Amino acid sequence: MTLSTVDPQKLTNDADKPDIRLTDILKTLPQECFEHNSRKAWSKALINVLMVGLGYVGIAFAPSFLLPLFWIFTGTALTGFFVIAHDCGHRSFAKRRWVNDLVGHLFMMPLIYPFHGWRIQHNHHHTHTNKLEEDNAWHPITPELFESWGPISKFTYEGFIRRRLWWVGSIGHWAVAHFNWSEFREKDRSSVKLSVGVVVVFAAIAFPTLIATTGIWGFVKFWLMPWLVYHFWMSTFTLVHHTTPEIPFSAPDKWNAAMAQLSGTVHCDYPRWIEFLCHDINVHIPHHISTAIPSYNLRLAHSSLQQNWGTYLHERSFSWALMKHITDQCHLYDDSENRYQSFKDYYQAKK
């Protein structure tokens, strides 16, 4: 189907439209969106390293009352490290696989994030975006599943992950999802073991060295606090990417890939300094239309999607009001009515 025959009116937010295909949307994107530019890729990587270095210089020499500002700056720049590795995981940073793997491991090492374990899990998310019981990124829990859990799991999900402490969600995901290679397919285990080994060796060398030279406070100041800021942004970005009360999740038999990627993903505008340090990762809809689009081409692709499919895009601006809106309402998912249910409504219905 060519651009001239694509009928946007056929698209709806229903997930049961088998005549809509991702290829229909892809054909409307300019070819430039998919072009690799080595200069842009390596320039972004170099600038990112310089920004992280600048942040650490600030942490080293700033008076104590300015440390929170430098923690925020450095942690946000480290989130940019993750985004560089994210491009590598989708093979959109460089044309050679071994370059993507090398750069991905190097940029994830300071975050203690196993590259291949994350890459494999993340690609599963792209394959099953907004599919109930399949998507592994901030997927909602049904009331029936919630009721089957024990008290500790209920407390963790209700008290932390889906309320005001959403920002610890990424830490939990990091801890449980990427280190246990026995949870991966046999053919992937050697790669996951390699990535786990890389970060374990890095931590075994870097952490004792940091503590020996700067003390426990130096470990907290130089690594732990920026790392917590990084996880704040990881939790926030990934939660907002696929969570508003208006975005449906679908059962596998009603799931449609085109609608899941086009209308199941949120474009969110953040302050420009965050967009700069994090390489436009929150221009997220085109990334779900095709993971082959490098981060430096996401805005071009998004402009095309706005022009051709704008009626079906979810666009927001970051604010604390937005986070309150999400964490007040998007708790459990009633798949019989295709809508989120707050814990307040859930407990009232049980009375």
Sum up the overall morphology in one term: globular
Strand order of the largest sheet: 1-2
Note the beta-strand portion.
under 5%
Poorly predicted residue ranges = 1-16
The total domain count is 1
Specify the structural class. Answer: mainly alpha
Largest sheet: number of strands, sense, barrel closure: 2 strands, parallel
Distance between the termini: 53 Å
The counted number of beta strands is: 4
Q: What series of H and E elements makes up the topology?
A: HHHHHHHHHHEHHHEHEEH
The portion of residues assigned to helices is 55-70%
Radius of gyration: 21 Å
User: What is the average per-residue confidence, as pLDDT, rounded to a whole number?
Assistant: 91
Note the total helix count.
15
Can you describe this structure?
It is built from 15 helices and 4 strands. The chain has one domain. With 351 residues, it is mostly helical.
Secondary-structure map with pairings?
Elements: H1 22-26, H2 38-61, H3 67-89, H4 97-108, H5 115-127, H6 143-148, H7 151-161, H8 169-177, H9 189-242, H10 257-263, E1 266-269, H11 272-277, H12 285-289, H13 298-309, E2 314-317, H14 320-329, E3 332-334, E4 339-341, H15 343-350
Parallel strand pairs: 1-2
Antiparallel strand pairs: 3-4
